[in-house]
Design brief:
By secondary structure, the chain is mainly α. It has a domain at 15-110. Helix content is 60%, strand content 0%. The chain has helices at residues 15-30, 40-45, 51-66, 77-131, 137-145. Helix 3 (51-66) packs antiparallel against helix 4 (77-131) and helix 4 packs antiparallel against helix 5 (137-145). The two termini are 23 Å apart. Mean pLDDT is 90; it is low at 164-169.
């Protein structure tokens, strides 16, 4: 018997696949030993590159390369180029990782929603079975009802209703 909503996710993630994914992530980290974390405060306060600043930075890089004799010896032109090249190289990787993370988050959210909707359906069915006198249904229903205890207006266990299920377009 299928559930009464559209089930958009029906998959398993085998232990071997999880192990392979973890290995792939470790490989990515190994290939990027330069990755650093920054604090929330740093994230809020450091100057950031955007499209306009990116063009400016590229122009400055070209100006430095073509006019190095105008700059003091302590100015590190090589580090400017190194940082800009890394920023540019990370652009493509960041987009791919962001797209993957979004798909993982969306799939996890949808799988959790579908599981919760099914759990609510089972809860209501156990309630109906208990009301119909099915042996053992009372105990199951009461165990599940603990989740909703003291959430009703007068402390009774409300009959939960899931959010409207998401239907594919």
């Amino acid at each position: 018997m299928s559930n009464s909503f559209s089930n958009r996710v029906s998959a398993t993630l085998a232990a071997a696949a999880i192990a392979n994914i973890k290995t792939a992530i470790a490989t990515i980290k190994t290939n990027m030993p330069f990755l650093v974390g920054i604090t929330t405060q740093e994230r809020q306060t450091i100057p950031k590159i955007n499209e306009a600043n990116r063009v400016f930075t590229a122009d400055a890089l070209n100006a430095v390369a073509n006019n190095a004799n105008m700059l003091p010896a302590y100015f590190n032109a090589a580090e400017l180029k190194l940082d800009y090249d890394l920023y540019t190289a990370l652009d493509e990787i960041n987009l791919l990782i962001t797209q993957l993370a979004e798909l993982i988050n969306d799939t996890q959210t949808l799988a959790g929603s579908e599981a919760y909707i099914s759990a609510l359906s089972a809860y209501r069915l156990f309630g109906a079975a208990a009301a119909g006198g099915v042996p053992g249904a009372d105990a199951v229903y009461e165990a599940l009802a603990q989740r909703f205890k003291n959430q009703g207006p007068s402390g009774e266990t409300p009959a939960p209703t899931p959010d409207t299920p998401v239907n594919p377009a």
